[in-house]
């Protein structure tokens, strides 16, 4: 392998390592984001008593008792909204975000 090719290979490897380290350094900032939001999957919200209570209060129903729960439980409330025939509104999602962001852990 020529010296030029070795230099190119080493340069590329260093670039990838630097990019990986830069990504790792930004990870703690992402950890500061709220743990729960209207983007959290419904089944995760249902699994926690506090977040389930917030979800039930804002949505106005226990989604786990819906006949189609198994089909949509992997969606977040925000993803479910367009399929809800207007039952999950933007105002509800905003209220849910506010309620969930106040929950710690």
The general outline is: globular
The oligomeric status of these chains comes to single chain
**Percentage of residues assigned to helices:** 55-70%
Low-pLDDT stretches are 4-24
- Give the overall average pLDDT: 79
The SSE order reads HHHHHH
Give the number of helices.
6
Secondary structure category: mainly alpha
* Count of folded domains: 2
Largest sheet: none
Number of strands: 0
Rounded to the nearest angstrom, the distance between the terminal CA atoms is 54 Å
Strand content: under 5%
Over the alpha carbons, how many angstroms does the gyration radius reach? 22 Å
Report on the structure:
The structure is a single chain. This protein has 105 residues and is mostly helical. It folds into two domains: 32 residues; 60 residues, no CATH class. 62% of the residues lie in helices and 0% in strands. The chain has six helices and no strands. The longest helix is centred in the first third of the chain and has 29 residues. The chain starts with a helix and ends with a helix. 16% of the residues are buried.
